[in-house]
Design goal:
single chain, mainly alpha, 4 helices, 0% strand
C-alpha cells in the first residue's frame, strides 16, 4: 500500500474544501458542501492510517465523524430552510441580520 498517494489525494480534497470556503463567501450551500468535503478528507486519513497500521480505531473514529457530519448537515439545512421561509433569501451577507 502506497500511503503517500492516498494521503496526497486526501490533502487535495481538504484543500478543495478549504478553497471552497474562502473563495466563495456568497453561497451558504457551497460553504456547507465545502465543510463536508473537508470532513471527508479527514475521514479518509483516518481510514488510510487505520489500514496502514492494521488498527480498527481509525475506522471507528471515521464512523463517528460521519455520524456527526450527517447530523451537522441535517441541522444546517433545516436552519437554512427556516431562514429562507422567514427572509426569502439565503445570501450570506443578509444572515448578519439575525443578530439580536
Amino acid at each position: 500500500m502506497d500511503l503517500v498517494k492516498y494521503l496526497t489525494f486526501s490533502f487535495l480534497l481538504f484543500l478543495l474544501g478549504f478553497w471552497g470556503i474562502f473563495l466563495n463567501r456568497k453561497n451558504i450551500i457551497i460553504m456547507l458542501m465545502s465543510i463536508e468535503l473537508m470532513l471527508l478528507a479527514v475521514n479518509l486519513n483516518f481510514l488510510f492510517f487505520s489500514v496502514y497500521l492494521d488498527d480498527l480505531i481509525g475506522q471507528l473514529f471515521a464512523l463517528f465523524v460521519l455520524t456527526v457530519a450527517a447530523a451537522e448537515s441535517a441541522i444546517g439545512l433545516a436552519l437554512l430552510v427556516v431562514y429562507y421561509r422567514v427572509r426569502g433569501t439565503i445570501a450570506v451577507e443578509f444572515i448578519s441580520l439575525l443578530k439580536g
